[in-house]
Specification:
With about 270 residues, chain A is mainly alpha-helical. Helices cover about 80% and strands about 0% of the residues of chain A. Chain A contains twelve helices and no strands. Classes of the chains: A mainly alpha (about 270), B alpha/beta (about 260). The interface of A and B includes residues 37 and 156 of A.
Chain lengths: ~270, ~260
Amino acid sequence: MFSGLADVFQYPFMQRALWAGLMVALISALLGVFVVQRGLSFLGDGLAHAAFGGVALGLLLGVSQPLWVALPFTFVTALGIAWVREHTALSSDTAIGIFFAVSVALGVLFISLQREYQTDAWHWLFGSILGVGRQDLAIIAGVTVLSLSIFVPLWGRLAYATFDAELAQTDGVRVGRLEYLLFALAAVIIVASVKVVGVILIAAYLVIPAASARLMSRSLFQMTLLSVVIGLVSTALGLVFSYFLDVPSGSTIILTQAFVFVLAAVIGGGIRA
Amino acid sequence: MARQACYAQDMTESAALHLHGVTVRFGEVEALQNVSFDLPAGETLAIVGPNGAGKSTLIKVALGLVKPEKGHAAIFGVDAGKNPKRIGYVPQLKTFDRSFPATALELVVSGLRQRWPTWLRPAERGQALNALTQVGAADYAGRALAKLSGGELQRVFLARALVRRPDIVFLDEPATGVDFLAEHDLYDLLERYQTERGATVVMITHDLSAARYHATRALVLNRRVHGFDLPAEVLCDACLKEAYGHLGHDHRVLVL
């Protein structure tokens, strides 16, 4: 079995897929903790569909690397959602729902306007280990460095604002600006993850490792560490299953995570105080 | 006149809490109208008033969480919100999310570090345990917040507020959700801390008898100031009737 695994990872495309997978697993797990604790799962879904709209626009424009179009498209959507939440009486769900619907509608429009049939769209929807090129890997690496350079120094402030925004504000934490930053970072991380996991399953990818970790943790920091471990292991295993079963990587990764979640739900009741 | 101006300026600079002409508007609603008062250091101020009177808004102005449309607020001569280290704050329990994964010890350390903790350093753990011991909460230091009762949680928040030895402590309805004995203990703990530190206490309370018994000053508020003086002077029928609009039913008298 192990020689089989070694054979799998001798291929450059699988090596790239593994590196890409581990990087997006790390940053998605870090983001996922805040998504779960702030009740922003719908945001993940909304931004994933904004990424779909951005990718579709990129494909229509014939851009060789659609991620370069998806990044600003999703980034602006994230800031738009944050702005609507802060400046209008609309609930988060409504704000996200509107942007979600518009992005999907635009995505369908852009895909329909393409003259040639695009198989790429399928890979973008469900993820593909074959689809991680060198440029994709470079972009994912860049996003990982950017994300870690924000999460590591700001974790204490983000966590404090997540616990109670008012208490954090009394201690000088700029909760409003942090929220904009978190949304912008979510946009960038989701776009980076779309290649590996696909648009349809990104929201689950963000939530399941953190939710599993929550069942077995007594502190937010423990939850963060465990979320990262679960994300890394399930992504690596999911990629291997994807190769051997010859199915989209998004599905095998999410199913592996779901299995871990069930284990955590069974074990979790006994571990937490 | 010059002497009065000097006295007024001295009073302002030495005041633990200074508000001058503070007006706060939320949309079309004026939550606070031209509120002015100076609270000397070392006093205990009880803020009373009906629901929607602007009591929590006033505390938020003092903490720098809400910017007034007009007027100015300062704590020990420094603009509101600019000196968090001298301030301790116990928020209303009902606004807090108990399902957040955290222990009592972590919550107290967050007050010390002014950030949410990752792992707990030994010195911080010691200080936090000390603060919890002082409020009688050491037994449940390692317990999850979700498993604490209202009274226990109130003690932990008090430990968090006092752990960095603030000079002024704000409490928003500290007795809500807490039983009679726990409420009694809370006031005892505050008085002990005040005696030890010479701290100033500002608390919002609906309990007028607690205000009369524990406070050295009372502020009757209903968007504007209806009285600011010794509790015996200002918690009188006339002031309360003006602020509340009535004095309640015979079987539940407001003034005891």
